[in-house]
Design brief:
This protein is α/β, with parallel strands linked by helices and 179 residues long. The two termini are 23 Å apart. It has a 6-stranded parallel β-sheet, sandwiched between helices. It is 48% helix and 20% strand. Strand 4 (97-103), helix 6 (105-118) and strand 5 (122-131) form a beta-alpha-beta unit. The radius of gyration is 15 Å and the shape is globular. The protein has a single domain, classed as Isochorismatase-like (Rossmann fold, 3-Layer(aba) Sandwich). The protein has helices at residues 16-21, 28-41, 53-56, 61-67, 84-93, 105-118, 135-148, 155-163, 171-178; strands at 7-12, 46-51, 72-75, 97-103, 122-131, 151-153.
């Protein structure tokens, strides 16, 4: 089970041009903000990336605003784990579990997730927090990640799993986020 002491949120390439062309694009911003605000309420580290921002554009404005001073790491490799700056942030987090969201599910998210798994980390990939241009590629990415050992989850499942009880101090915050 997810635990806020062991978990961190990894957000892969939530960028304007990509966010606008994916299947189910209407879910991108609301689910992304639920994740970020939930992780912040639970004081979890957030590691965010953008893929070649000079070509694909910066992080979507809602993400930049929600993250505030949290840095967004630029990358050229599809897997974030192939970028030294990301690896430093990953090691600095000290976390063992990673909740994974991003665009595109079948490229950068998949390769990041597979590298996390290969490195011995637990990965929870969010079916409604990862996006691809086609539903087929989205579904194939989830299947491949699950076959490799990732847990397929959702934004709401992950947030409630992190708090585990209605007596958690952040229960009201999390409840409001998913409504």
């Amino acid at each position: 089970m997810l635990n806020p002491v062991d978990a961190a949120l990894v957000l892969v390439d939530f960028q304007g041009r990509l966010a606008e062309i994916v299947d189910r694009s209407e879910l991108v911003v609301p689910n992304l903000l639920r994740l970020v605000k939930g992780a912040q309420a639970l004081e979890m580290p957030i590691l965010a990336t953008v893929q070649v921002p000079e070509k694909l554009g910066p992080a979507i404005p809602e993400l930049s605003e929600a993250l505030g001073a949290t840095p967004i790491i630029s990358k050229t490799a599809f897997s974030a784990l192939r970028e030294p700056e990301f690896m430093l942030a990953l090691k600095h987090s000290g976390r063992k579990q990673f909740i994974l969201g991003g665009i595109e599910a079948h490229v950068c998210v998949l390769q990041t997730g597979l590298d996390l798994l290969d490195s011995g980390y637990a990965v929870h990939i969010l079916s409604d927090g990862v996006f691809s241009r086609t539903a087929e590629n989205h579904d194939l990415a989830l299947q491949r990640m699950q076959a490799a050992g990732a847990t397929v989850s959702s934004v709401e499942i992950a947030l409630f799993e992190l708090i585990r009880t209605s007596k958690h101090p952040e229960f009201r915050t999390i409840s409001k986020l998913v409504k």
